[in-house]
Design brief:
five-stranded parallel beta sheet, three-stranded antiparallel beta sheet, 19 helices, 46% helix
Length: 518
């Protein structure tokens, strides 16, 4: 007995002491080399977890911060979530350890049985249609996006779900409330700062649901830039200097996002979105009023969605759905690719419905051209009407001010577009006003030759004009001979260079201007 006790004591003394400080615990992660395997990371974090059990709360938080920084240096996209998964329960972010008003999430439990995608999407659609008035082409991407939020990490592109309306009372907030009951880790906010977006995204990876965005998004360039960055996984980062030592840190912005607002999203965000334009329901449209206590009844659907996504992540990750040929913009094709992949895997009528919605909603989005593109369209038509000659700025502005259906007559504060504002619109396209001498006067305006590159890059080709019908097909050789005789006779008395054209339909001879004018 004495010998055995001695052996155990010697063995215990030979073991290195357990880490007692955050710095000692972090040395367990220093053994990880660049691009470690998952088994190496799990083993290192397992030792790290055991080391934290004997520490107080402050030491644990310091150790956690250091672990997040180390994993970020190793190239992990969401080090905060990885470290939190390995932390002892007492230091994980949860409602048990954080004060009132703090963020807390509870991940959905996976449904115990395998789920059929077609049936699941049908159930979600039935639930959504009970409370929100949407057209069939709108509800399809709405319910598909719910599954995208659960399977988010399977994709390289994260399209924003934009829910817009021309006025209040169209159901946007109700739609967001439904999303909050059906997506994983919902975080709903009616106002948010840029730093809150990237910090909460990096730490929690929520499904971000922004309501009333028209009240704060337009005036915040920083916030728009951060939301834009989360569209592509490889670029979903922002860089900040943090801490007293001014350490450069990267924060992930990769997370599902839905934005509701009156009006339209800013152009760069709209370009990264699948947009559902809601309308105030008509008297003929019957829906139920959503009672907030009913949201808990949707937990089964959320669990089913989580199970379906978990079972099909690999299939979605390597999917390559066919995109409708009518969607020509690269970014629009990227936005619809995840939704179409989910529809294809779900089966039933969803592949067809998803593509019909994609074609129609993309066509509507394509009509929402930017101010710059609209200006190019108007100026191309003006130059063509004027014979593609140089035009002075005053003539261009007079034409634009007369276009009542365009924004130019009341550009800013109900005042017409000015020459300086016109130049500012054209400058991003590499087009600037020029000066030239004409009739002993210095003119200032624009040369259509300088627009050729922008026209070719940003506008569709001008459709070719239909060829004029040949007079020979109607009148045969007699008509041809008659025209030839008329032309030779007319030329003798035609010093101004007009050319004869036979108008067979009227039985008259029309004269078409040639190079000369009068």
């Amino acid at each position: 007995m004495t010998a055995s006790l001695s052996n155990l004591t010697a063995l215990a003394e030979s073991q290195p002491p357990a880490p007692s400080t955050p710095e000692e615990a972090l040395t367990l992660l220093d053994r990880l080399e660049e691009s470690p395997s998952s088994s190496q990371v799990m083993a290192a974090l397992g030792h790290f977890k055991e080391a934290l059990k004997s520490m107080d709360d402050i030491s644990r938080e310091l150790a956690r911060e250091g672990a997040v920084k180390r994993l970020r240096v190793l190239g992990f996209a969401s080090p905060g979530r990885i470290v939190d998964a390995a932390m002892p329960p007492s230091v994980r972010p949860s409602s048990d350890t954080r004060g009132a008003g703090s963020i807390a999430f509870q991940d959905p439990e996976l449904w115990p049985e395998a789920v059929q995608g077609n049936d699941l999407l049908g159930r979600i659609e039935t639930t959504v249609s009970r409370y929100v008035a949407m057209t069939p082409e709108q509800v399809a991407p709405f319910v598909l996006w719910i599954l995208l939020a659960h399977a988010h990490d399977a994709f390289e592109i994260s399209p924003i779900l934009a829910i817009t309306s021309p006025d209040k009372g169209c159901g946007k907030s109700t739609a967001l409330a439904l999303l909050s009951a059906l997506v994983p880790r919902p975080l709903t906010s009616a106002n948010i700062t840029p730093s809150a977006v990237f910090r909460v995204t990096d730490y929690f990876r929520p499904t971000l649901l922004l309501d009333e965005a028209d009240t704060f998004l337009t005036d915040s360039e920083g916030l728009r830039g951060i939301l834009n960055s989360g569209h592509m996984r490889s670029q979903a980062y922002v860089t900040r200097v943090t801490g007293d030592e001014h350490q450069v840190s990267m924060f992930s912005t990769w997370t599902p996002k839905a934005i509701a607002l009156i009006g339209e999203l800013p152009a760069t965000l709209a370009d990264r979105s699948v947009t559902i334009r809601m309308r105030r329901r008509s008297r003929a449209e019957r829906i139920e009023r959503l009672q907030l206590h009913r949201l808990g009844d949707m937990e089964d659907l959320r669990s089913m969605a989580a199970r379906w996504a978990s079972d099909h992540l690999d299939e979605l990750r390597f999917s390559d759905p066919e995109i409708p040929a009518g969607i020509t913009k690269d970014r629009a094709r990227d936005n619809w690719r995840p939704l179409l992949a989910i529809a294809d895997l779900a089966g039933g009528g969803w592949p067809r419905r998803a593509r019909e919605s994609a074609g129609r909603l993309s066509a509507m989005a394509a009509s929402d051209t930017s101010v710059g593109i609209t200006m190019l369209e108007d100026l191309r038509a003006l130059f063509a009407a004027k014979g593609n000659v140089k035009l002075v700025s005053e003539e261009i502005l007079a034409h634009l001010h007369a276009m009542e259906e365009r924004p130019w007559p009341e550009w800013r504060d109900r005042t017409p577009l000015s020459a300086r504002q016109l130049a500012a619109i054209l400058n991003p396209f590499g087009i600037t006003p020029i000066k030239w001498r004409q009739e002993n006067t210095t003119r200032r305006g624009y040369d259509p030759a300088h627009f050729a590159d922008a026209f070719s890059r940003y506008l569709p080709p001008v459709p070719p004009q239909a060829p004029q019908p040949s007079s020979e097909s109607t009148c045969g050789n007699f008509s041809s001979a008659t025209n030839d005789l008329f032309a030779s006779t007319f030329a003798e008395d035609n010093p101004n260079g007009f050319s004869p054209v036979a108008d067979v339909a009227d039985g008259k001879m029309a004269i078409e201007p040639g190079s000369a004018t009068r």
